UniProtKB/TrEMBL annotation:
Superkingdom of the organism of origin: Bacteria
Domain IstB-like ATP-binding: residue ranges: 15-59
A GO term, aspect molecular function: ATP binding
Coiled-coil intervals: none
Record InterPro entries: IstB_ATP-bd, P-loop_NTPase
Protein name listed in UniProt: IstB-like ATP-binding domain-containing protein
Length: 60
């Protein structure tokens, strides 16, 4: 039997960097458990720079 995460695509796009999750969640063990389940088979893409929305807003 497969778990839900093994048969469905899941997309998470938090506005908070992963490095800050422990501080925000507060409980280190809980943060570790959440991160383990999210990232153990994940492809991670870190995007740097100003957001496109902000760039477009500044042009107008």
């Amino acid at each position: 039997m497969y778990g839900y995460s093994e048969i469905k695509t899941q997309n998470y796009s938090p506005q908070l960097p992963v490095s800050k999750w422990h501080d925000i969640i507060g409980e280190r063990t809980l943060a570790d458990a959440i991160l383990d389940r999210l990232v153990h088979t994940a492809y991670r893409i870190d995007i740097k720079g100003e957001s496109m929305r902000r760039k477009l807003k500044n042009k107008n």
